[in-house]
Amino acid sequence: MIAQQTNLDTIANNLASVNTTGYKTQTNEFKSLLYQTIQTETTSANGETKPTSAQVGLGVRNASINTVFTQGSLLSSEKDTDFAINGKGFFAVQGDDGNTYYTRNGTFQWSVASTGHMLCDSQGNPVIDTNGKPIVLGNQYTMSKVTVGRDGSVLYPDEQNNPQPIGFTIGLFQFNNPGGLKREGDNLYSQTAASGQPLNEATNNNLDKSSVIQYYLEGSNVNVADEMVNMITTQRAYEFNSKVITTSDTMLEEANNLRR
Predict the structure, then answer these.
(1) HSE on the CB side for 11, CA within 13 Å?
(2) How many helices (H) does the chain have, and how many strands (E)?
(3) Model pTM?
(4) Are 218 and 71 in contact (CB under 8 A)?
(5) SS3 assignment, position 233
(6) pLDDT tens-digit profile of 86-128?
């Protein structure tokens, strides 16, 4: 029952995050607990050998909660600082503690910095470029004219109004095992020993390159229909386990009554 409650909590979190930009659905994995051996495969009631043993399982418990990093749907936006990633990459932002965190949420904005304007996420964390530095544009740039190419390069129109690179490229990073990333809240992930080191798409030619799409956001990959079916199945399993406990208690009560 505890395992099924954990499963229901995970499903509830998926449904609550169905409209969260860049959210990746989570799934529960279970494993069996210890088995009680009543008879081994080499003994029987009359001392003869037997090919199989008699073991009774003692339930299950949660083994892991895995994240499914499939591509979410691309949703159009009217903001020029909204970006979606098409591919396996992650944006990188610098947290208040100085560490680098990774996200699929491309809801960015320009904030006023001491030397100009800095590209930040919705929490005010600076967005990191391919060199690991915040993207800060000088006061000579008009933010409404800034665009971003599909490779993440920051562009500004020249005298002929043709967008030209100005020396910044939004960083995109991949991981050999994204399932090993640690969730930090606020749609942020941090690297772990299980995820491996971040792989910079700009400097690693062995990766399938992701693309940045301006005026779009990546929706969550939660399938509401699947989650509703999972919720019903989990509820039924919880009820069945409860019924088993009640039945077992009734049977033990009957056994105790035999003494009277």
Answers:
(1) 19
(2) 2, 20
(3) 0.84
(4) yes
(5) helix
(6) 999 999 999 999 999 999 999 999 998 888 899 999 899 999 9
CA distance 147 to 149: 7
Contact 188, 102 (CB under 8 A): yes
CA 221, distance to chain mean position in Å, is 10
Give dist(CA 251, CA 120) in Å, integer. Answer: 63
Q: How far apart are the first and last CA of the chain?
A: 33
Backbone torsions φ then ψ of 185, nearest 5 degrees: 85, 165
pLDDT digits (tens, 9 = 90+) for 120-129: 998 999 999 9
Distance (Å) of CA 66 to CA 12, 27, 38, 69, 177: 15, 5, 35, 10, 12
- Residue 170 vs residues 1, 55, 91: alpha-carbon distances, Å: 46, 57, 8
Contact of 216 with 82, CB cutoff 8 Å: yes
Report residue 91 as tokens: 């944006």
Q: What is the DSSP string of 177-223?
A: -GGGPEEEETTEEE--TTT-S-EETTT-TTS---EEEETEEEPP---
Q: Which residues contact 228 (CB under 8 A, 6 or more apart)?
A: 15
| Cα atoms found within 13 Å of the Cα of residue 211, Cβ hemisphere only | 7
Residue found under tokens 């001491």? 114
Spatial neighbors of 195 by CB under 8 A, at least 6 apart, are: 175, 176, 177, 178, 179, 180, 181, 182
